[in-house]
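Minutes, project check-in
Item: structure for the 283-residue chain
Input as provided by the requester:
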Amino acid sequence: MPAGSVSAAPIGVFDSGVGGLTVLKALCAQLPGESFVYLGDTARLPYGTKSAATVTRYSLKAAEALAEYGVKCLVIACNTVSAFALPAIREHSGAVPVVGVIEPGAEAACRASRSGHIAVIATEGTVRRGAYQAAILKLRSHARVSAQPAALLVALAEEGVCNGAIAESIARYYLAPLFREDLPGSPPDTLVLGCTHFPMLADAIRAVLPPQVAVVDSATTTAAQVHSALATAGLLKPAGTAAGAGAPAVRFLATDDAGRFARVGSRFLQRPITSGEVELIDL
């Protein structure tokens, strides 16, 4: 296939649901000339409470489905999948670059932290796997990592309860134990939002944190890493090929309930999605 044809191919983005649309939003901003195919496995969510074997099995099916669209790069816009299944997906994807969200998030956290004490909130599966802990310690061997599952924040984001007293109360419930002043040593100075739903609650989370704490959202860093991976592989679209001044072209795929995907996804992507834009597929 000619190089130009490959560079014109879309970028595949995968998540268990709509949370990865926060990553897609960053990708569209970083790569405005590219086109995207986004797959949300809404029939099988949530992934965060499932076993590693199940998450890996579902994820490989999703990667195979996106490969049928001729994607030139695959972005795993899900922390749980990045924690459990990234090596298997890379092995099965051959020469196609595969970028997860945990490694870029860990790099950003290590850069942001002055003390080396970093807190992570994520799904149960991501915390149980210890993926952020391992990624941070690989980069900064003397770091301290305090990790906390925060499942209710996912539900709040899905329901659109992202600001106000309820959101702040739930955020405080999870964060207060991590940032107690009476803990041995200094409290964390950096917080990683280790789930792609959590940027939706960034204002509520910031409201209950000490003001000096840096908050890391891996979406922007992931988008930068995708740009770098495409450039290194010679897969970036040539300059001047952007479709125009509007938003990049996105094809939306889901495995269940196009209406809910469109309704909830519109909040995550911060632009309207109609149910007619969402194609239902079976994995």
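Outcome recorded: The chain has a mean pLDDT of 93.
No further action items on this chain.
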